[in-house]
Amino acid sequence: MVEHLTKSELAIMEVMWDQEDALTATEIIKVSGDKEWKNSSVHLLVNALLEKKFIEVVGFKKTTKNYARTFKPTMTREQYLTRKVLGHMQPEEKMNIYKKLLKEIDDPESLRDIKRNIDARLKVLANQ
């Protein structure tokens, strides 16, 4: 099960998921668009996300006077949403969801792609 994120933590994660490169806390503020974060608030949120293991330190960037840590998410947006939705479900419930989702797909190529993913997953499990 995935740990709960506050609205502000989720907003920081959304910013990070939308960026390809690792970001410093200052860069998070700059690319946040209409959200006006205080530097101290972002540092608190970043530390909370580090503690919850949603982000990790991946390096350092030289700023005007010192070095700033750079951060990247430890999971994709899709991984987070999947864990959020399925994390608390029993295996039977998950199977029912998968079956219902498959019934919604009308494109044969999409179904073949799903089958390839299932086959790849089965190979991984067979080798464990």
Secondary structure layout:
Layout: H1 7-17, H2 25-31, H3 39-51, E1 55-62, E2 67-73, H4 77-86, H5 91-103, H6 108-126
Helix pairs in contact: 2-3
So what's the overall shape? elongated
- Uncertain runs are none
Q: From the alpha-carbon coordinates, what is the Rg to the nearest angstrom? A: 19 Å
Structural class: mainly alpha
Order of helices and strands: HHHEEHHH
What is the strand tally?
2
Strand order of the largest sheet: 1-2
The portion of residues assigned to helices is: 55-70%
**Largest sheet features:** 2 strands, antiparallel
State the distance separating the first and last CA atoms.
22 Å
Strand content: 5-15%
The named CATH superfamily of the largest domain: Winged helix-like DNA-binding domain superfamily/Winged helix DNA-binding domain
Tell me what the CATH architecture of the largest domain is: Orthogonal Bundle
Tell me the count of domains: 2
Assigned CATH class of the largest domain: Mainly Alpha
Number of helices: 6
Tell me the CATH topology of the largest domain: Arc Repressor Mutant, subunit A
Mean pLDDT equals 92
Main traits of this protein?
mainly alpha; Arc Repressor Mutant, subunit A; single chain; 128 residues; elongated; two-stranded antiparallel sheet; 2 strands; 2 domains
